[in-house]
Amino acid sequence: MHFYKENGEAFHYVPMTSRDGTRPTRMSDVKKVWQKGEVCVPGVTTILNVLSKPALDNWKINQHLNQAHKLEHLELDEYISEVKRLTRIEMDLAPSAGTNFHKTMENFVSGNLEDEENYDLAEKVYKTITRKTESKEFIAEKTFSTELYGGSVDLHNNDWVIDFKTKQTKDKFKPGKMAYNEQIMQLSAYRYGLGLRNAKCANVFVCLENGEIDFHVHSEKELEKCKRIFDHALEIWHLKTS
Question: How many angstroms separate the CA atoms of 108 and 119, rounded?
């Protein structure tokens, strides 16, 4: 769960009390902040978790079935446990790859070229974006907070709000068919949160296996519709957590 304090300060993790290190922020932590009279609002992606995600649920089912197909000659309890264990490992790969790519793009746009291994892909993606948008300057990983919600925006300027989505393998990369409503809700909420209500919004889909790129611009009609859906999700989130 992602939360944001005043001025967009991220509040994603808190220190553990039993040992060194941190753990993800929970609602109990947020309510302690509220009790102090401080600002703490949910992130856009946290709010969207109140909605069903059929495509994601189907992907999770398929991941479990793929692992189950590989196993045999185990007792039922051990079989179930092993399927779950192997699936967790496999499912962690996609988010990790996506997180690494986002960090690479942030470094590239900010001029911190630490990730030399993926420099060429970052350069290719950024050149595609500047060509498609006819813009030269972007800000990477901008955080914000409003009275109701917050977020972290992959890339934006005064005219565009952009979010990256990655696919690990080319068989999963289907140009023109990868955009869906949750992504539009996310971008429409971002542009309102940034105060850029007339900005155009796009998802940039990147295949990590072969570097293929699909730049998908969402229509104003889609953005306005999905902002209304997001507003309802926001109301549900507050009703559930108040």
Answer: 7
Tokens standing for 122? Answer: 């970052």
The model's pTM is 0.81
pLDDT tens digits, one per residue of 185-227: 999 999 999 999 999 999 999 999 899 999 999 999 999 999 9
- Which of 196, 214, 197 lies closest to 205 in space, CA to CA? 214
Amino acid letter at 219? Answer: S
- pLDDT tens per residue across span 136-189: 899 999 999 999 999 999 999 999 999 999 998 898 899 999 988 999 999 999
DSSP 57-71: HHHHHHHHHHHHHH-
Handedness of CA 19, 15, 233, 198 (dihedral sign): negative
CA distances from 34 to 26, 29, 30, 176, 237 (A): 13, 9, 6, 43, 16
The pair of structure tokens assigned to 147 is 């009275």
Q: Residue 72's beta-bridge partner residues?
A: none
